[in-house]
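so ive been stuck on this for like two days lol. basically i have the seq below and the ligand is pyridoxal-5'-phosphate, smiles is in there too. i just want the complex predicted, nothing fancy, no docking runs or whatever. if the output looks off dont worry ill sanity check it later, just need somthing to start from for the group meeting slides
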Amino acid sequence: MLFGKKDQEESKYLDPIFGNPNEDADLPKYKLARKSMQADVAYRMVKDELEDEGNARQNLATFCQTYMEPEATQLMAETLEKNAIDKSEYPRTTEIENRCVNILADLWHAPKDGNYLGTSTVGSSEACMLGGLAMKFAWRKRAEKLGLDLNAHKPNLVISSSYQVCWEKFCTYWDIELREVPLDENDLSLNMDTVMDYVDEYTIGIVGIMGITYTGRYDNIKKLNDLVEEYNKHTDYKVYIHVDAASGGFYTPFVEPEIEWDFKLKNVVSINSSGHKYGLVYPGIGWVLWRDAKFVPQDLIFNVSYLGGEMPTMAINFSRSASQIIGQYYNFVRYGFDGYREIHQRTHEVAKYIIKEIKKTGRFKVVNGAQHLPILCYALKDDHAQEWNLYDLSDRLRMRGWQVPTYPMPDNLNNLIVQRIVCRADLGMNVAIEFIEDFKACLEELDHAHVLAHHSDEQKKTTYGFTH
Ligand SMILES: *Cc1c(COP(=O)(O)O)cnc(C)c1O
C-alpha cells in the first residue's frame, strides 16, 4: 500500500490505557516522539493497535498460511537476522535454500540429466516477475537471431483473462502487451480452442495457471503443451510455457500425482509457486524454477560473493530475512511427502463437507466444488427468489467473523457473481462445522431481514475489494 498524509488523523483526546504514565502518550503518526518509552509498554501499545483486525483463522478469503507449528515459529523467530542474500556470511542458510530448490525440482519432475536451476523469492509475484523476465530476454535473443524487427511491435504475453494481478503488474512494469484469452465458458479456464490464435512472433511465452485465483480450477497444461508442440513444428519463432502454480505447485504433486502439468511436459520451461500458500509457510516466500539454465539469459544473473568465490543470484530484491526459507525447509523436514499429502487430503475432505452442506441449502449452484484444490466457488441459483444477494451474505458472515469474498468473474463472464472459500490446513473439521452453522444462520437471518432493494445496474458496477 502507498500511504499519504490524508490517510491519518491525530486522535482528538487521549485515554491512558493501563495506568502506567508511559502509556499516557499518543502513538506517533506523523513524526517521531521526542522521548523513548519502555519496551513492554511499547509492545503493549503496538499490539493493542492491532487488536481489532480480523481473525486470520476465520479469513476464508486468503490463500496464505495462517498457522504454523510452535517449533516452526520459534525456529523462524530465531533466524530473523539472517540475510538471505548474504551467501558468504550464511553459507548453511544458502545450502538450505539450495536443498529446497532441489526438493522442488524433484517434486516437479525436472529432467534429472538437465541443468535445472531456481531460487526462493518473496512470493509468487516476485517469482512471476523473474519467470516473465527470463521469457522476455530469451525471446529477444531468439527473435534477434531470426532477424525480427524488435521495434515494430511490443512483445506480448498470452494468458487467460482470469490471471492474478501480478501478471498485469509484470506487463506494465516491463512494457509488455498482456494478451488476455477470454475464459472458456464451459470449463472456466484457459480456452484451448482459441489460445493459439493469440500467439505470434512477438509472444514471449504463454502462461498456464494451476489454481485459477477466481475459482481454484486448473488450466489444462497437458493440452496446452500439445498445442505448443504442434505450433512449434511449423515456425522458427518457438514459444514456451510458464506455469503459474502459485497454489497447485505445492498441492498437485502430493494429492494428484496423475495430473501432468510440470516439467514432465517438454514445453513447460519454468514454474512458480507460493511457499506461503499450500507450501504451509507464513508469508512471504515463493519459488521459481527453470527446467534448464538455457532458459535463463545470463544478463539476468548477478553474482554475489560466496565463501571467497562468486555465486549467481537472480532476484528483484536484495536483502531480506532468510527465516521464511528456513521455515520452508522445516516443513519439508517435518512433514515429508506423506505429511504434506495427509494434511492436504484432510483439507480437501473439509472442503468437500462444506460444499455438500452449502449445496443442501438448495440456494446455490456450484462453480467449483473442490474439484482439485480445496477451493470452493459458488453462485446463487438463477431462479433464486430471495431479495438478498451474495454481497449481503458476505457482510452477514463478516458479522460472525468470517471473511468470505464475493466478486464478479472476469470480462466475458462478469455477469456471474461468485463467492469463494479457500480451505487451508488450519480449517479443521470442527471449525468447518461451526462455519456451516453460522452460514445457515446467516441465510435464515437474511431471509427475515429487511434488505434494501438492490438496483441491479448499480450492483454490477460495484466491485468489492478482491486482490488475491
Ligand atoms: C496468489 C497468486 C499469485 C501471487 O502470489 P503471491 O505469493 O501472493 O505473491 C500469483 N498467481 C496466482 C495464480 C496466485 O494464486
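The CA atoms of residues 68 and 247 lie 17 Å apart. Residues 459-468 have pLDDT under 50 and may be disordered.
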